[in-house]
Specification:
By secondary structure, the chain is of the alpha+beta class. The protein is built from 3 helices and 9 strands, in the order H-H-E-E-H-E-E-E-E-E-E-E. It has an 8-stranded mixed β-barrel with strand order 1-2-3-4-7-8-6-5.
Length: 243
Amino acid sequence: MRRQCMRSRARVRASCHAVTGADLPAESSPIGGAIRQRARIVGIAALALAALAFAHGGYIVAKADVGQWLLERAWRHARATGAAWKPWPWADMHPVARLRAPAQRADVIVLSGATGRTLAWGPGHLDGSARAGDPGNAVFTAHRDTHFAFLADAHLGERIIVDRVDGTQAQFRITGMAVVAANALRLRAQTDTPTLTLVTCYPFDAIAPNTRWRYVVSATLVAPPAMAERGGVAIGINRPAAS
């Protein structure tokens, strides 16, 4: 009888072990299934966000490329006619000059005004300042990490060339560089000689936008505005001959 009871107890323990599900497949666990379902949802959401970010980045790049092409076209029209030409119908700015720094291989189109919308596309010509090459101080401003990033490597004595809408070209030489507090920046409207002043935020590697400092580059006119030449032929405005 005792041996029979022991065999009965062994059978009960085996039955309990089977009921606990120790040897059952994991799929039968409702908790494990929920975790895997949640992981699948998170994975799909991550892939969707990555695809959206990639598409948005591609849109920004495409927008910038198209915008630069439109600015180039507007500049060519302005140079050919001498008239203001908007790059797109709703634009509140237009090309007024082209600035080149040969030593830095920089070449940018300067736009009218110095608003935030203008600086998103290129350097802005500060309203009220002189036209580059004319008596007074011409002030161009741009972002430190895009169109005026080259100023970080510019040196005293380097040339700055400004092509104007009227077909003439003015040449400047860098004569001064300074870091000035933004709230202490004062730019002279009148100067003894025609001057070009380039202004951007500082330091150049700052992460935060609109820093407390400004980097100011001053350049003095060394060659007054004259008709630009290409291949020995003067380039000017194509105006119809007087009748």
